[in-house]
Every structure is written in C-alpha cells, then in structure tokens.
C-alpha cells in the first residue's frame, strides 16, 4: 500500500545550505496535498516534554467518572466535553473529546487535573507558531510567495481538541466517521502512537502509521477553496484498536467574518467555488451535524461548488 509522505520540517528552519533539499521537500508537500490532502511532519520543533504532559493530562481527565466530565459540557457542544457525536445518519462515534478555543478566557477547565490548563495553553502557543510557519511553507509549495496564504485573512479563530478513543476488543469498525475538516488545516499528534487514523485516496483507506515524534498535517476545506481545488481537503476517519488511543488536534481557521473565495492566482477566471463567510459555513456544518436535525445529507464544502 502506498505510504504517507513524510516531510522533515528542520530543512526549513536551518541554514541556506539546504536549499536543494528544501525544494525537494516543497515538491513532496505539493504532491501530498494534491493526492492525499495530508502529510506527516517530523523534526517539527514542538517540545516533546509538553507533548508527553499532554498525554498524561488527557489520560488523567478521560479516566475520571462520566458524571464529573459532563460538568464541562456546554449547551451547544461547541466547546468543552462531548461524548455523544456522530455523522448524519450513522451511529454515534466511539470517542469522547474536550475542545477549547485557543483564545479562551473561561473557567471551563477540569480542576481535578490542575496541570491540564497550563500545559494545554503552552502547547497551544507552540502550535500557533508552527502553524504560522506552515502557512508560509504551504504558500511556497504552491509556487507562490511565502505570504500568499497569510494575506487571505486578518485574524485566527483557532481551537484545539483532546480526544480519547476507548479500547475496542470486540469491534473492528470505524470509531470516528469519515469527514473533511472545515479549517485551513489541522495538526494532529497521535499522542500514544496507537494506530487508527486513516485517509481516503482513490477509493482506498490508507493507515497513517504514527512515526516517532511526528505530526499529521491534515488539509481542510478552506485551503481547498483558496487553491481552487488544486490542494484537496483530506477525507479521513479513525478505526478501532484493541488499545485505547489518545490524540491532540489543533485546528487553524480564520475568524468568522473572513470572506472565503478562491485566490485569483489559482482560479484563472474559472472559480470552482462561490465566495462565502467563514462563520456561515461553520454554522451550516454544525447545525447539519446535530443529531436531532432531520436533514439526511451531510453538508460539505461542495455546498459552495460552482457547477
């Protein structure tokens, strides 16, 4: 089976003597973004100690009683603790998660795990810096100036997510339904390196085997629109494992008042998508996915596609 491309991030942070290897890596990124919609990143510069602490904190929180965790649910499940979610028309996902906005100032944090908040905030800061550099590199992989994607919006509205997939000894199906992310891109750390994350390519599911100290860079719908379909949003899912699985997911996206449309350099007078407000799309997706919603069809970025 075809392997998932792996990119060495250190090549972009070191001296100019590595220019040839950087060009080769940009080509690898470009091909991966066109074919898979994702790639793995190694030597990414994130503090391995803080990633280890994130795993410890996630384990400590998710092993707490459900009654306690449910204290951190919110009315619309947009942030906080969620344990009942799923794709339209399908079964509930076999997972639980804790999501928070990157700029969150609330007290929606588990007091029984005192280190959860400070460690998460520090990891979020490191992820923000990584994301800024990745935006430059993705621009360059498109053959464009490094600030091309940065110019598409003024402000971020990032959020991050700790996920727990319980061990499944008697079940071998999917535990997170296939979907695309409504983001620019998403960075995934498979914290305890338990396999399960898969990406769809040419009708076949490919397992993203966790490389040591690696991250998954998963392209989202917004980047697909900006590049007028040149880069694709990854269709991905998670399948069951006999061991429990923990992951940390950081989502990069523009704030809601940002207008999203193909970048002129990539649409050449033939845009494949209508322009739309980011907040409108996220609201459509969220309302569509509510379990009590009677709409039978999932809303994806194709909603804005031009026939």
UniProtKB/TrEMBL annotation:
SUPFAM superfamilies: Clavaminate synthase-like (SSF51197). GO terms for molecular function: dioxygenase activity; metal ion binding. Belongs to the iron/ascorbate-dependent oxidoreductase family. PROSITE patterns: FE2OG_OXY (PS51471). InterPro entries: DIOX_N (IPR026992), IPNS-like_FE2OG_OXY (IPR044861), IPNS-like_sf (IPR027443), Iron_ascorbate_oxido_reductase (IPR050231), Oxoglu/Fe-dep_dioxygenase_dom (IPR005123). This is 2-oxoacid-dependent dioxygenase. Coiled coil: none annotated. Keywords: Dioxygenase, Iron, Metal-binding, Oxidoreductase. Residues 156-254 form the Fe2OG dioxygenase domain.
């Amino acid at each position: 089976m075809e392997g998932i491309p792996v990119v060495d991030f250190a090549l972009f942070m070191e001296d100019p003597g590595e220019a040839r290897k950087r060009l080769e890596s940009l080509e690898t990124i470009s091909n991966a973004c066109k074919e898979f919609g994702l790639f793995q990143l190694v030597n990414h510069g994130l503090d391995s100690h803080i990633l280890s602490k994130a795993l410890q904190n996630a384990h400590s929180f998710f092993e707490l009683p459900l009654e306690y965790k449910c204290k951190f649910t919110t009315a619309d499940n947009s942030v906080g603790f969620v344990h009942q979610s799923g794709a339209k028309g399908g079964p509930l996902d076999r997972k639980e998660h804790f999501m928070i906005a990157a700029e969150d100032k609330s007290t929606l944090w588990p007091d029984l795990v005192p280190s959860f908040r400070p460690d998460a905030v520090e990891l979020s800061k490191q992820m923000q810096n990584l994301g800024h550099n990745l935006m430059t590199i993705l621009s360059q992989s498109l053959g464009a100036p490094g600030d091309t994607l940065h110019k598409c919006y003024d402000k971020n509205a990032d959020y991050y997510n700790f996920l727990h997939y319980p061990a499944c000894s008697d079940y071998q199906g999917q535990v997170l339904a296939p979907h695309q992310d409504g983001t620019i891109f998403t960075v995934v750390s498979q914290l305890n390196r338990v396999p399960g994350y898969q990406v769809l390519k040419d009708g076949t599911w490919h397992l993203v085997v966790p490389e040591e100290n690696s991250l998954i860079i998963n392209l989202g719908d917004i980047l697909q629109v900006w590049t007028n379909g040149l880069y694709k949003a990854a269709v991905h899912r998670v399948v069951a494992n006999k061991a429990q699985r923990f992951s940390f997911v950081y989502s990069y996206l523009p704030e809601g008042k940002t207008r999203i449309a193909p970048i002129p350099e990539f649409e050449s007078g033939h845009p494949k998508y209508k322009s739309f407000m980011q907040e409108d799309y996220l609201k459509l997706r969220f309302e569509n996915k509510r379990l009590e919603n009677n709409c039978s069809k999932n809303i994806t970025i194709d909603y804005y596609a031009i026939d």
